[in-house]
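Appendix C: a fully annotated inverse folding record. The material below is reproduced so that readers can follow the format used throughout the book. The structure is listed first as tokens, followed by the designed sequence.
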């Protein structure tokens, strides 16, 4: 009797995870420190909001390390199918931290706006923000390539966060320029825009991870791909039942296929195994369960 699912460790995947996490943690920590110093010296609320966003990214990165570390642990008697659900659970916790960072950024920006704003010197803030945007774009391209290579929703979300950070940094940069050349209120206004973008990113991340935790199903495009993959297996005459749900960051698929009722049990079992293996080769699918029925049974 076997009580635990047998999964071989993927050393290449683990190595890519570590590389992406190193890029994310080091980059976010460096930017958070530099932006905080620049915000303190310049007094810019836009830069402060951007620094708050970077600190939330640092916390996100650290929790991602914990979550992915647990998620990659092999199955045991307490979690016989594996620990993959810990990855989106950590992602959900991160959205709370992102929301808190957004609230603090919004609060400070609104207070500065009500106080009439302030003219911000261009030198230090602009240099820091331009450097930040360049680094974040580099982080985005590096992490998104790894995320798509290993089909990691959490790293995909981290890469999208890097892209969002680039846009919010550009908004903060616009605020600094605007406060110097147009009106002092441009700086806190840009800080408010940055905080709204942080809230938006937190909402989208929470929505995605909640779907992974609550059994959301595959989208229409992926459902059609699953159906097409199953029908392409030799011996399958029809597929009339397909249900998929996310269990952690990957799908579990249950399907009923129709076979020639005259074949032997061994032949039917072989076809079912072939269908399951074919569906499980899809990067979005963790495992598939296949039930065989005769062609005239619908």
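Designed amino acids, in order:
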């Amino acid at each position: 009797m076997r009580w635990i699912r047998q999964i071989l460790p993927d050393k290449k995947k683990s190595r890519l995870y570590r590389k992406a996490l190193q890029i994310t943690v080091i980059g976010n920590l460096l930017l958070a420190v530099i932006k905080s110093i620049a915000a303190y010296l310049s007094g810019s609320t836009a830069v402060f909001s951007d620094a708050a966003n970077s600190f939330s990214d640092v916390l996100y990165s650290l929790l991602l390390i914990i979550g992915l570390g647990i998620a990659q642990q092999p199955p045991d008697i307490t979690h016989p199918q594996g620990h993959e659900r810990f990855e989106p659970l950590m992602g959900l916790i991160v959205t709370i931290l992102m929301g808190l960072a957004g609230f603090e950024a919004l609060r400070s920006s609104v207070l500065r706006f009500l106080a009439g704003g302030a003219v911000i010197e261009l030198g230090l803030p602009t240099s820091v923000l331009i450097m930040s945007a360049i680094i974040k774009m580099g982080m985005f391209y590096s992490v998104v390539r790894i995320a798509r290579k290993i089909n990691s929703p959490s790293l995909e979300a981290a890469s999208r966060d890097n892209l969002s950070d680039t846009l919010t940094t550009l908004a903060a940069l616009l605020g600094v320029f605007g406060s110097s050349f147009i009106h002092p209120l441009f700086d806190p206004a840009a800080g408010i825009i940055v905080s709204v973008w942080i809230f938006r990113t937190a909402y989208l991340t929470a929505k995605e991870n909640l779907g992974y935790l609550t059994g959301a199903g595959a989208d229409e495009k992926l459902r059609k791909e699953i159906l097409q993959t199953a029908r392409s297996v030799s011996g399958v005459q029809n597929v009339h039942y397909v249900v998929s749900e996310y269990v952690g960051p990957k799908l579990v698929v249950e399907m009923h296929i129709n076979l020639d009722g005259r074949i032997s049990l061994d032949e039917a079992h072989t076809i079912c195994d072939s269908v399951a293996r074919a569906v499980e080769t899809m990067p979005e699918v963790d495992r598939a369960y296949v039930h065989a029925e005769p062609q005239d049974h619908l």
